[in-house]
Amino acid sequence: MDLEDITAEMSRSLDALKIIYEKLEIELGEKSCFMQNAEQRELLYTLYALSHIIGLLCRNLNQVREKYQLNIEETIKKVVT
Questions:
Q1: CA-CA distance, 32 to 65, in Å (whole number)?
Q2: Is 7:67 a contact under the CB 8 Å cutoff?
Q3: Could you identify which of 21, 29, 39, 50 might form a hypothetical disulfide with 35, taking C-beta atoms 3.0 to 4.6 angstroms apart as the criterion?
Q4: pLDDT tens for residues 26-42?
Q5: Where are the domains of the chain?
């Protein structure tokens, strides 16, 4: 698995987490008046944890992309010189 495959896999994972986050957010909005405080709190903690994971994945994905771009630039410089 090369860097491009890893980046693609990270992007797919990130997209899947965003979908889960959005569905949980919708569920909280639709069912909040029927939920007990403990249930609402648990769902909010889950949303917070997911948002944290999404943020970390975004940061890591950007770092991988930057490194991949640097590797491409270094390879081009080596080939050209």
A1: 39
A2: no
A3: 39
A4: 888 887 777 788 888 88
A5: 3-80
Q: Sign of the C-alpha dihedral, residues 25, 27, 30, 35?
A: negative
- Long-range (24+ apart) CB contacts under 8 A made by 55-62 are 57/10, 57/13, 57/14, 57/17, 58/14, 60/10, 61/7, 61/10, 61/11, 61/14
The domain made up of 3-80 has a fold known as: Methane Monooxygenase Hydroxylase; Chain G, domain 1 (1.20.58)
Q: Say whether 64 sits in a helix, a strand or coil.
A: helix
**Helix, strand, coil % over all residues of the chain, rounded to 5:** 95, 0, 5
One-letter amino acid of 8: A
